[in-house]
Amino acid sequence: MLTFAELTEKVDELSKEELEELKRIIELRWIELRRQEIVEAAEQARKEHNEGKTVVLSSPEEIKGYFMKMINDED
Questions:
Q1: What mean pLDDT do residues 47-56 have?
Q2: pTM score, two decimals?
Q3: Full residue range of the structural domain in which residue 52 is found
């Protein structure tokens, strides 16, 4: 694993096109990680709902994920 200084040095060596590609890859990975968090929150909310607990969703994405999970579970 690279230290922050080593990573900074390597990033400084990248061309403009390589930097844009790196940025795109990081953004896609961030989106995937966020999507996974939403799916996990939806699954937890669904489990709590099935157990008769009050469901607390903290973002529009979690609400959407919760209802999408409910729809998919019914199919």
A1: 78
A2: 0.54
A3: 20-74
